[in-house]
Design goal:
The chain has no helices and eleven strands. The chain is an all-beta fold. The strands form two sheets. Strands 2, 4, 5, 6, 9, 10 and 11 form a seven-stranded mixed β-sheet that branches. A hairpin with a 4-residue loop joins β5 and β6.
């Protein structure tokens, strides 16, 4: 049974940093896509923040977080991290970890452009990140 458990959310002032972690269990596959999504409020669209493509180590970031967030994978601990620096009030959201265990490679012209090109069938419960003074 696949489980994704997030941790590391909290309240931070603008300009501060947080590190989110997602512990993945039940994974025995060699190829997957795992990433972070966020939802600013109930009913708002869930946004792909960053994701990691296991097959070749590609990382993808949405434009608003490039240069501020960094995704990393700790294979030994089956944990994926999201280091978030220089946080802004607009980063406030519930952050979810999600995984596509059998990714279909998108067309070459689109590869590496967006986390939303994959089918995420496993989701964590989410962790709240609030950026406020």
């Amino acid at each position: 049974q696949v489980q994704l458990v997030e941790s590391g959310g909290g309240l931070v002032e603008p300009g501060g940093s947080l590190k989110l972690s997602c512990l993945a269990s039940g994974f025995t596959l060699d190829d997957y896509v795992i990433g972070w999504f966020r939802q600013a409020a109930p009913g708002k669209e869930r946004e792909g923040v960053s994701c990691f493509i296991k097959s070749d180590g590609t990382t993808i970031y949405t434009g608003s977080v490039k240069g501020r967030f960094a995704i990393s994978m700790d294979d030994a601990r089956n944990t994926i991290h999201l280091q978030m620096n220089n946080l802004k009030p607009e980063d406030t959201a519930v952050y979810y970890c999600a995984a596509d265990p059998d990714p279909i490679r998108p067309p070459v012209s689109l590869y590496g452009s967006s986390c939303s090109l994959y089918q995420y069938i496993y989701w964590g419960q989410g962790t709240q990140v609030t950026v406020s003074s």
